[in-house]
Amino acid sequence: MTILDDLQAIPVVDHHCHIGMDTYQDSQGRLRDADSHEKAYARGYVEGRIGPDAYTRWLDAERRRDAAELADLEETYGISGMLQRALRYRETTVFAASLADGHRFLDAQVGFDYRSPRARSDVRALFDQTLDLVNCPVVLTDVRALPEELADSPRYRWVMRIDGYLYPFPLGRTGRRGEEVESFTARFRADLQARLDELGLDHAPTSFAAYLEFLTSSIKHVVANGAVGFKIASAYTRSLAFVPRGYREAESAWNRAVAGSFEDRALYEDYIAFHVLRQIATWRLPVQIHVGSGHGEPGMAYAGARPRLLQSVFDQRELFGIPFVLIHGGYPYCGETAIMAHTYGNVYLDFSWMPYLHRTHLVSRLNEWLEFLPANKVIFGTDTGLPEMHVAAVRNGRWAVARALERGRSNNLWAGEQAIWLAERVLKDNALEIYSELGVAA
Fold first, then answer.
1. Boundary (domain end) residue, out of 46, 67, 91
2. Which residues are 13's β-sheet partners?
3. Does residue 215 sit in the same domain as residue 242?
4. Is 390 in contact with 131 (CB distance < 8 Å)?
5. In the structure, what pLDDT confidence band is assigned to residue 266 with cuts at 50, 70 and 90?
6. Residues 291 and 322 reside in one and the same domain
7. pLDDT digits (tens, 9 = 90+) for 135-172
8. Which domain does 414 fall in, by range?
9. Is the peptide bond before 298 cis (omega within 30 degrees of 0)?
């Protein structure tokens, strides 16, 4: 037997996914097909050829389903042909290979009609079967609110983004290329509205003190309603350099924002971030933080997504009780991610997203991390919300861990039993230890 054979028998806990997220579903609640998901990754190619202004027009027309505008853009630019070329160029990527592998794996399962509209309308049933196939008993899913059909199952556990709290004011377009920032800001505002609705509020309080009271009440509410952790995704929209601020300067910046001036928004955003984290610290619940790269279109400011910028958060003594997990391995800042986990006892890393974007690079990074970090520091995740991609990410992740362990064995670093124990830590036990209330037997 190979190490990979041994790893197939180890259940995996998916530390970070998006099962149940509305962006993975169409207007009728059916799961989108994975091919449409790949087309979203190909949009950057279009933007680079028709220019930022026409690109924005195209995305706006897509959202409005404006047939006349789309026809005009197609006649002018030939966008459908560009998308086909972009997909052809993407055929050589690990992403495309992973998607094909996910299709092949599910196609091979007798009686598993995962492509049909009926199957994709029942998200719970489809994912229950998918997760069973890859031996994944529990997932931590980053969604606005856990859908009703998933909420009564111990398999699906809710991680809530706190970013919406930071952006209570409409900020408009940034003027950058692409729509990375605008799309995430819109999602964050929808997240905030969901939290307001839960407490029976039509809009955010305009007083800074009242807004902070709302935040405290909201965090209590979501914990009482099943959140097992939280997430910060603000690397898409601003720098991760959250700076401790005084109440008075934050309140002054808030009041200027109420009046329509947002130049000093970082002052109140930073204060709000630490206020929310202090609330979370009272429950000692984990916080996932997106570090490193984002989606495949212009817009994200990568200089602000570096893991080392988070030292201003990790150095706060009052937050030591929060387990912070830096997600996606921090690519391309993988070394910085590791050094943060090495330096702080309550900081960890997961490599979600990487299993369907990298092969040899992921194996190399796992070797680096597993040789350098204690066995409790590295965590598996998928960062997927579609069944085809989920099975591919689990299969690729197991394969990468097995290859890394084989290399470690050949270098006389880990003996046989120790290698399997380390795999168990990475694939399930580290997540179960951090999220101890999951109730899944280790």
1. 91
2. 138
3. yes
4. yes
5. very high
6. yes
7. 999 999 999 999 999 999 999 999 999 999 999 998 77
8. 3-32+94-438
9. no
Specify the 3-state DSSP secondary structure of 73.
helix
250 plus 291 within the same structural domain: yes
What pairs with residue 347 in β-bridges? 324
- Per-residue confidence at 442, pLDDT binned at 50, 70, 90? very low
DSSP 331-369: TT-HHHHHHHHHH-TTEEEE-TTGGGT-SHHHHHHHHHH
Same domain, 86 and 129: no
DSSP 3-state of 267: helix
Nearest to 387 by CA among 96, 181, 112, 6: 112
- Torsion sign across C-alpha atoms 335, 138, 160, 120: positive
Q: Calculate Rg over the CA atoms of the chain.
A: 22
Instruction: Say if CB 321 and CB 346 are below 8 A apart.
Output: yes
46 plus 7 within the same structural domain: no
Kindly state the average pLDDT of the residues 335-353: 98
- Count of domains for the chain: 2
Query: Residue 134's closest CA among 412, 411, 397?
Result: 397
Q: How far apart (Å, rounded) are the C-alpha atoms in residues 3 and 6?
A: 5
